[in-house]
């Protein structure tokens, strides 16, 4: 039994490691394709890119783990079935369930580790990655001059150069518009040549200009019309320097406390705390809305509810029965005033309820997301067990190894799982179903499939044997033909 257990463990671990890294690589490429525009041309240091990739690799474990578990289990038992090792194990009197016992223990360890990972490590990594990704997306692209095109990336300036050297450090035929004082450029500088270099602290870009001229127009303060007396100045220079503030091009550091209350960055204990506080807030808001309605409809609502059929009469309702409140109870000369007062009260109540409803919906949406994230901590671990329970018997049934049919089957079943879970989660976020039902829907739907495949594999069922289905179809066709021939014979005899 030790040799059998060791054989199965070795056959599983190698494909699992290979498929895990393949899936991680594919998911990482998808992430880079998504955020390629935010990373290119901004002059990030190599360690910043590696830090972002590292965080993303950790985040993608929650999707890579179940998929690699499904694919590696199909490959493992497909290889064992194709080489008739499963047949030899069963022939030795060892059941498939007993042979897979250490593998079940290993998968249970993986599932427990994934739960601890999602509760303790993933929230911290989400916080770090969310903060870094915000800084990356907010950082401006590096200052870059294209010949013949105005560059407006530096606030308050428009810069154009007709040419530059190969290194991009020397610009030719420069024109610089300074419009820091307003929309119009009253300060224009032109030079034949300019040399670019950064200050020692990299906070400023210095442009050393040669053989140029500066035009300045001194307009009177708050003057919007042309004044012939306004001053126009022209300066010629052999060499001068223009300093540009590059603070907006530096990568900022966002405060992590801004994201700490996000649902994806909380562990179970913190989620429980936020769910409880949110529930208290929702309860108090619901009571406040009820009190507002009661104060506005106090007399009418008490009378109306008390005088419904089957309800006990209210003694303090000192108002006579009516069919129409205005015509039956209000005098003719007061009806216009009463109607206007009622409309004003109704408009006030409508605005008040609209504001309260928006706030209530915001808290309700937060409550749903907190509960969804709470259930996600557990569904990651259970999905590893479920997909292994699907993949292992499926591989034993199809009896095909390698990266051909197992990959196709793994993709099909993972897509089924992913589509069900995504649709159910979106439905839960919309409030159509409960958060628990939305997060556990895929597991509830696919658990009977896992049990069915396990039963078929233990009974040596040829579920995917095409020849078997051909024989059954041919037998059914012969039976149909015999039935038709008997009917025709009976008609001819009559």
TrEMBL record:
Sequence intervals crossing the membrane: 12-33, 53-77, 103-122, 378-398, 404-424, 436-455
**Provenance organism:** Sphingobacterium zeae
Question: Do the record's keywords include Flavoprotein?
Answer: no
**Keyword set for this entry?**
Cell membrane, Membrane, Transmembrane, Transmembrane helix
UniProt keyword Membrane, yes or no: yes
Q: Where in the cell is it found?
A: Cell membrane
Q: What is this protein called?
A: Lipopolysaccharide export system permease protein
Q: Which Pfam families match?
A: LptF_LptG (PF03739)
Q: Its principal location? A: membrane
Q: How does it sit in the membrane?
A: Multi-pass membrane protein
């Amino acid at each position: 039994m030790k040799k059998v257990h060791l054989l199965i463990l070795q056959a599983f671990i190698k494909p699992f490691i290979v498929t895990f890294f393949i899936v991680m690589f594919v998911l990482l490429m998808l992430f880079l394709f998504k955020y390629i525009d935010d990373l290119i041309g901004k002059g990030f240091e190599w360690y910043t890119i590696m830090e972002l990739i590292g965080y993303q690799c950790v985040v993608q474990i929650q999707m890579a783990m179940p998929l690699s578990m499904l694919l590696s289990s199909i490959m493992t038992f497909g290889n064992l079935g194709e080489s008739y090792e499963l047949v030899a194990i069963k022939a030795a009197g060892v059941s498939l369930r007993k042979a897979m016992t250490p593998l079940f223990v290993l998968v249970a360890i993986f599932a427990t580790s994934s739960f601890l990972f999602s509760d303790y490590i993933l929230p911290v990594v989400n916080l770090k990655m969310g903060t870094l990704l915000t800084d990356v997306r907010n950082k401006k692209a590096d200052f870059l001059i294209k010949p013949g095109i105005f560059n407006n990336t530096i606030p308050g300036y428009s810069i154009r150069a007709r040419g530059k050297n190969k290194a991009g450090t020397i610009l030719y035929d420069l024109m610089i518009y300074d419009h820091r004082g307003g929309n119009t450029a009253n300060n224009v500088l032109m030079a034949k040549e300019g040399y670019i270099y950064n200050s020692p602290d990299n906070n400023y870009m210095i442009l050393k200009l040669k053989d140029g001229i500066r035009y300045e127009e001194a307009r009177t303060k708050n003057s919007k019309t042309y004044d012939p007396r306004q001053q126009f100045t022209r300066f010629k220079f052999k060499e001068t320097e223009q300093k540009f503030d590059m603070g907006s091009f530096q990568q900022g550091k966002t405060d992590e406390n801004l994201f700490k209350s996000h649902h994806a960055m909380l562990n179970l204990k913190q989620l429980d705390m936020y769910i409880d506080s949110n529930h208290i807030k929702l309860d108090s808001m619901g009571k406040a809305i009820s009190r507002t309605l009661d104060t506005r409809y106090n007399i009418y609502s008490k009378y109306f509810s008390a005088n419904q059929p089957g309800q006990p009469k209210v003694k303090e309702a000192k108002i006579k029965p009516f069919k129409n409140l205005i015509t039956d109870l209000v005098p003719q000369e007061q009806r216009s005033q009463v109607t206007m007062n009622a409309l004003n009260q109704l408009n006030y109540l409508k605005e008040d309820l609209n504001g309260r409803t928006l706030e209530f919906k915001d808290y309700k949406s937060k409550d749903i997301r907190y509960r969804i994230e709470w259930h996600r901590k557990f569904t990651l671990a259970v999905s590893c067990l479920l997909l292994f329970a699907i993949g292992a018997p499926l591989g034993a049934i199809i009896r095909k190894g390698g990266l051909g049919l197992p990959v196709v089957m793994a993709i099909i079943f993972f897509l089924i799982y992913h589509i069900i879970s995504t649709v159910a989660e979106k439905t839960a976020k919309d409030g159509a179903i409960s958060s628990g039902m939305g997060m556990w829907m895929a597991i509830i739907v696919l658990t009977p499939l896992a049990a069915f495949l396990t039963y078929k594999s233990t009974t040596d069922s040829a579920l995917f044997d095409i020849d078997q289905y051909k024989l059954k179809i041919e037998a059914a066709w012969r039976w149909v033909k015999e039935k038709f021939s008997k009917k025709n014979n009976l008609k001819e005899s009559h």
